[in-house]
Structure formats: C-alpha cells, structure tokens
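notes to self, project folder thing:

trying the whole complex as one job this time. last attempt i did each chain seperately and stitching them together was a nightmare. two parts in total, labels are on each line so i dont mix them up again. if this works i'll redo the older ones the same way
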Amino acid sequence: MKTAQRLLSDALIQEKVIEAIGKIFCDREPHAQELLTKALNSETDELARDILDDIIDNAALAREERLPLCQDTGLLVVFARLGVDVRLEICLRDTLEQAAAIAWQKYYMRDSIAPDPLRGQLDECEDIRSESDARLPIVLHLEQVPGDGLSLDLALKGGGAENMSALRMFNPSAKVEEIVEFVVDTVVNAGGRPCPPVIVGVGIGGDFELSAILAKRALFTDSDERGTCYRELEKDILRRINERGRGVMGLAGRNTALEVRILTAPCHIASLPVAVNLDCHAHRHIRVEI
Amino acid sequence: MKVRKLSLPFSSEMISSLIQGDKILLDGTLYTSRDLAHTRLVELMRAGQPSPIPLDEGALFYCGPSPVPPGKVCGAIGPTTSARMDRFTPFLLEHGLKVIIGKGDRSPEVCDAIRKHGAVYLVATGGISALLSRCVVSRETFLWPKLGAEAVYRYVVQDFPCYVAIV
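result (full assembly):
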C-alpha cells in the first residue's frame, strides 16, 4: 500500500531558511541572551562587566539596524531531520545552498570561504576570493525520521570558536575525572580566542566522527533534549571552567562559559571518544519546523 | 579600570604610560590585515620591498570585515584571533609596527617582541560588530581587493573601544 506523501516545495523551504538566517545573523538565540544577562548580574569584575554590557547592547543595536552581530557571519551548519513521508522537489542540499546564497547577499554577510583549504599553495589548485560572492558549501547532517515534517536546526558558526575544538580517543578505562579535565583544559587554554563566554558542546561516545557530530549537535539542544543522566556532570564541568578564571574575552572575570551541554552515544568496547566543540557568545542558532 | 581617550599614532612615551587592563577609546587610522594579507605583506618585505602599509602610522587591526550595506559607512567589523598572526608578528615589530588590535592570547615569543620593541597589543571585544561599526568615520579598500574579506582596508575610527593586553 502506498503511503500519502507531503510535498515540500523548494520555494517554501528556501523562504523559511532565508527568514531564519535573517533572524540569527543579527540576533543571538534568546536563551543565550538570558544566560548573558545572568552572567552580567553575577559578574563582579569591572572590566568583565564593561565587556558584557557591550555584548548585550550590541545585540539590540544589531537587531534594530539589521547589521551582523559579528563580522564573521560564519559557516552555515544544518542538522536536518527529514520525515520519511515527505517528498522533496530537489535535493535538500541544493535547496539549502541556494537559500544560503540568497540570504548571504540579502543580509550583506561575509563570504568566509577559502575555496582551496591550502590557499592555492599547490600549482594545481586555485584559491580565488571576492568581497561578496556567495560561494557557500554548507555543512549538512541529514537524518531520516518518521512523519511528514522537516525540522532544520541552523547555525551560523564562526571560525574563532570552531578552531578551539578538540577530540581525544580515551582509553575505555579512563576515569570521569580525566574526561572532565580534558574538557575544562580545552576551554580554559583557548583563552580569549573563541570569544568567551562560550557555550561548550561535548560529545561522549560513538566513534571518531560521531563524537564530533554529537559535540556540535549538543550546541543546539536545550536541557530537556539532553535528559537528566549527565546534568550534574555538565554543572560540575561548568563550575570548574569558571573557577579557573580566564573570563570574558579571556581578559577578566569569572564568566568563561555560559553552559556545558553533553550528548552521548554507545561506543565500541575498545573506545571512548570525547569531542569538544565551542560556540562563541554570538550563538546564532535557530530551529525551523516545516 | 582607567578609561583613556587616545589618538594614533602613539609616541613611545604614550605607550610606556599604558597599563594592562586600561580601556582605550581610540581615534585614528586602522589597517585591517589577517592571514592572507600577512602572508603577502611579509613575503614582500622579506624580498626587500618596503611595507605597503605604514606600520608606524596607525594600528594593524586583525579583521576581515563584512560587505558594506547600501547607505552605511561600513559593514560589520571586529577582531579575529590574533594567535594566527603570531608567526609574522616579531618580524613586523622589527620593521616598525607599534600598535596591534586583535583578540586572544599571543605566544610568549610575541609577548617578548612586543615589549622589546616598545609596542602595544590591544584587545577589542569580538562579536560586537554593530557597536564597533558606529565608531567608523570612513572606510576604503587599501590593498589587494581581490582578497575579499582578507584584503587590507583602511578605517578611520573615533572612540573605538579596546583594552590594553600586552605592553
């Protein structure tokens, strides 16, 4: 028996994605804004308070003037959950890349892509740049789910925070304490480079690449989606990061991280991969349900 | 935290009066330069040519701006991670660079070179582009426009907020 399929047009998906990018390029996710206000209220250091004031004020001004929160308008990262009863007109990647290209021009976002990762050092590979061309390979994680909906978690991910990511293949007999130290050291040693206060995504388990995907995926989650098992561990890691006192922009105060978010997956009996992915205070994340 | 309103270029006396943690509201000329522009700049200078950027006149700002929307003086601006430029910085300090603006820690070698040459490293807040763009009086493409966001742009700024990090 044939199941009824819901058609989601290329035009509809593009419209929703362009609208969503139009929200986050100039405004952070509301929960992150609340966490920053809480950080300001708890901060006693004068310099750190001065910076937090600017970070909070900037969002209001950016929203009002439709200016990017940050000149690094990031790379578009998408976690898509596509219902099995959905029919698409064209490949989802093509739709998303076209939407991104339009959004990048519409909102005057920065082309932050180096077409050749080795910057044209090899004679055979060119690395041609422009100020406003929209050449945007997006990062897409596509999963099929039951139902006839399409859920898109979108992020504009800046390079500074991404560069401070880390992944370690632990010995399976490693104590929790060793993992905690690894996460805390990764955040603290990053200093001001990832634009703290950061949100810390941690992926534990899976395999090499799944742990990294979990760490990034964790940045999109709220506490209900993460369950209760690791909640105390998240709080413990957060406390220990902030006790080390690198602070806002790595300069001062006690607010190095706003939240720690852990996602886990079962893993091979020989393995214990742990990945850490950071997000800057701009935290440009949004969910689109179609 | 002391707040000081200062104009570029900085004299040696002014730099030696700066204290780590001071807030500065900066007036003057900033030249943006990040990864690719640094590679080109240092290659040229190592080949014996003079620096096309007047290193002692303004500040070198590690920044890759976003495009300028119609009716605006500039697009979004802000600091990028300074550590990526560490490999070039001692050489540029030897050739007259005095004021650097970026974000994040520098290597011990760069910290030593900054102090040895009587220069200063200022940290600007990342992710406050809308606020920083308000400080821009004028903007022009200065060098290598084909590098897009990584080209060298010349900004004249007023009351640009930053903090003394290494002096």
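what i see at first glance: Chain B touches chain A through 43 residues (CB under 8 Å).
need to look closer tmrw
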